[in-house]
Known about the structure:
The protein is mainly beta. The protein has two helices and 14 strands, in the order αβαβββββββββββββ. The chain folds into two domains: 29-102, Sandwich (Immunoglobulin-like); 109-172. 14% of the residues lie in helices and 37% in strands.
Amino acid sequence: MKKPILILSVLLVLLVGVEQSFAPIPVGFLQVDILPARAVTAGAQWSLDGPLPVRDSDTYTAPAVGTHTVYFTTVSGWTTPANQQVTILDGQWTTNYGTYVLTGSPTLAVTLTSTNTLLVSWPSPSTGWNLQQNTNLTTLNWITPPETISDDGTNRSIVVNPPAGKMFFRLMQ
């Protein structure tokens, strides 16, 4: 008779321990998008709080509330984005972006001039690189700016009147 009672006692202790280990943990949601698409095609991925597991662009996870670090994988021919600190809040979505830069890419600069216009410039020559603009980063509506490109032999540039809303520029090869 003692043997079955002993087994029941052990089972009760184990069940109590299991119940306590399933306390709800507050979580939020994190999505990481990697840009540009060519870097993703080349194998760019991200991870949270360490090197593994790696995840593809435009995927999400449900980490515990608090501060975490997003890491990006190294991809040959691309400059890897810096690690990013992200704060996760209970039940809220957070989206982070990691932008890879093609090695050897010219640097694009945007400067406010004394006449309140924007000077968009990049090194000359930048053979094969074309300036594009867009009012929304979530669309694919990139167009060539209508302004004439000046080239002084050191830099190529355009002068733009500040837009009423947002305006984004990029160099594409």
